[in-house]
Amino acid sequence: MLTAAMLLNGLLIVLSSHCAWARKSEPSLGEGGAGLFRGSDKYDFAIVVPAAGMECFWHFAHQSGSFYLTYMVQWVTGMANDPRLFVTVSSPQGSLMGSKNEAVGQIHFQTEMTGFYRMCLGNHNNRFGGIRVFLNFGVIYEGFEESKRQMQEEDKVFNSTVAGIEESVQRLQNQIFHVWRHYNFARMRKGKDHHLLLSNLNYVNWWSATQSLLIVLSGYLQLLVLKRLFHRDSSRPRC
């Protein structure tokens, strides 16, 4: 009886351990007291990544969710000239789920385990300037089709936002071009007036000098003529 009881206990232990290893990393929806949050979990904000630096964020996600990350580089600072940003998303076990090295990018996948997913933003392409980037990420637990539909809607909103920003930037560039054109025209007119003023000044100076020289020369000639008129010779004066 003791041997049979020990064998029965060993069999129960083996079966329980096998069930524990085959179980998911989170309770199912039917289990009571699980306390799982099955709503949408979204965040959007902007952050500045310093020169040659990296910023990382951790976001908790349950199993069987749709994880998405959308980012867009808004502007660069300092001596940065490369708007690309190296973005990676890693699973709780450390495996790489997706990576991008572009100025605008999207990463989305289905979460296969529960835990904290790490998102890292690396400004490795710029050594002397920071990058301001806008982030939009979250997890959706409404099924794959619903998540796909919401992702498509997010893509439409994102694309419309990018199109609006491009249109605004193009309009701003056109306005800056017109302002620069008017500035160049005004500078050309100012330069023309400056050169005309210098030319008039040189003309007045040379003409004044010439007139002064003529006046001095005519006075000297008059003085010579008067002296010759009143000059006396041996016989009689001329005048």
UniProtKB/TrEMBL annotation:
Transmembrane segments: none
Record protein name field: Transmembrane emp24 domain-containing protein 6 p24 family protein gamma-5
Similarity annotation: Belongs to the EMP24/GP25L family.
SMART domains: EMP24_GP25L
Membrane topology according to the record: Single-pass type I membrane protein
Provenance organism: Channa argus (Northern snakehead)
Compartments reported by the entry: Endoplasmic reticulum membrane; Membrane
Domain GOLD: start-end pairs: 54-139
Record's keyword terms, sorted: Endoplasmic reticulum, Membrane, Signal, Transmembrane, Transmembrane helix
UniProt xrefs under InterPro entries: Emp24-like (IPR015720), GOLD_dom (IPR009038)
